[in-house]
Amino acid sequence: MSAPVIIWFRRDLRLQDNLALEAALKSGAAVIPLFIFDPNILNSRRISSVRLKFMLSALESLDGSLRAYGRRLLVRHGEALPTLQNLIEQSGATALYFNTDYTPFAIQRDAAVSEALSIGVHTYHDRLMMPPGSVMTNDDTPYSVYSPFKRKWREKRDERLHIAQYTISAEKLHDLEGLQNDGLPDLHALGHSSTVDVPQTSAEYVSSLLDRWVDERIYGYKDGRDMLGDPHTAPLSATSFFSPYIRFGILSTRTIYWHCREAYENATDKAGRESVTKFVDEIIWHEFYTHVLWHHPHVVDHNFNEKYDAIQWRHAPDMLAAWQNGMTGYPIVDAAMRQLNATGWMHNRARMVVASFLTKDLLIDWREGELYFMRRLLDGDLANNNGGWQWAAGTGTDAQPYFRIFNPLSQSQKFDPTGAYIRAWIPELRDVADRFIHEPHNAATPPNNYPAPIVDHQLARQAALQMFEAAKKSEVN
DNA sequence: AACGACTTGTT
DNA sequence: ACAAGTCGT
């Protein structure tokens, strides 16, 4: 039996359309499928119990897919480099394959691994269709505005981008005999617990989710994407719910993209084509924010726009706690935060509403919100989450102008007109009459177990405007 | 270098 | 109507 090679799974927990796996299989050597639980990641401040639970489920599914071939996932615990060195020594592996991860910690880790290992290390751009550096302005500088980035992306996107083509069989996978396999831990063994029921992760389920989306549901995206609703009667709303799957690479954006091209061809009218285009725009946002973080790693804990560094955000732990717990007295904000706490997911429209509320109504630093989201979201992704928060705060690339402040009441009336979303997540408000559902404190007999608004929006709005203007002034001087 | 363009809004 | 520049070609 000849020497094996290793595929190191990280944020690409799937067997389909995986470029590193394709290359490893085509090497002709038996492939060891490896996952490493790294204490540096498990101990990071942005770790999330619910996301970890979801990832464990995804790893179970990956292992299940391998078991269908009579093989297993090899699991090890430890820091990446020594763990890899140990496995290479034990197995005699002659090459390592993995897909590039573009986040700051991973870049550093992977550079150290490539540098230290004496075997061949092969990396692939699998997570993005256009890797950082491949979509630049005519002056060869990174874009800081989305629209021109999108135009260039669409112009430059390589037509040869292909869905990886390969077949897997027992013979192509290493049997792992004689290799220590730590197996998948349960959540508690990792020091975490969560009562959230995480979404299904099997390859079959994810594939059916994609099929239902591109065959039918995508055509309602343009009109329905912003509407909040009752998740019990319309569990998926008009959004794809792909984000948790994209986060862990359970579903590849390249696969989604090519399915969208087909959906575009199959559209029967202009509105259908516009829906597909709008949806693909969102995938390009994913690429944009990943590029932004790659070019400007300081955005992790600094304003992208230094002009606003002088802002004196409010230190208000009680207000922050009220926001986190869905007890602000603004039903749309509280419904959204409770959806996040209960499910690990929040509708995108709602994310903007609660982010605007934290930064412009409570005047609390966007970093507090960014961190809380990372600790709760199934799809928590450093680049996208940071980009979204800085957009809402007005400090980011192509950010919302600071004076354009969301009004929680009008957002509520516009995107949850019947109050179905509010009632779904705030049981205290279930019996409130329709005309008071967006502002229950104005009802004749307000529910006594639901708080009155903790701030006055009009006053808070004025304070936010002053805070930003003061920061701009002090920056000039 | 002038000029068009600029995710998601509010009053 | 307003708001405020600034990005990219």
State the gist of this model.
The chain is mainly alpha-helical. The protein contains 19 helices and five strands.
Count of runs of 4 or more consecutive helical residues: 19
CATH evolutionary superfamily of the largest domain: DNA Cyclobutane Dipyrimidine Photolyase, subunit A, domain 3
- State the name of the first-level CATH class of the largest domain: Mainly Alpha
Structural class by secondary-structure content: mainly alpha
Q: Estimate nothing, just give the exact number of structural domains.
A: 3
How big is the Rg? 24 Å
> What oligomeric state best describes the polypeptide chains here?
single chain
Going across the biggest sheet, name each strand in turn: 3-2-1-4-5
Strand content: 5-15%
CATH architecture classification name of the largest domain: Orthogonal Bundle
Helix content: 40-55%
Shape: globular
H/E series: EHEHHEHEHEHHHHHHHHHHHHHH
- Total strands: 5
Intertermini distance: 72 Å
CATH topology of the largest domain: DNA Cyclobutane Dipyrimidine Photolyase, subunit A, domain 3
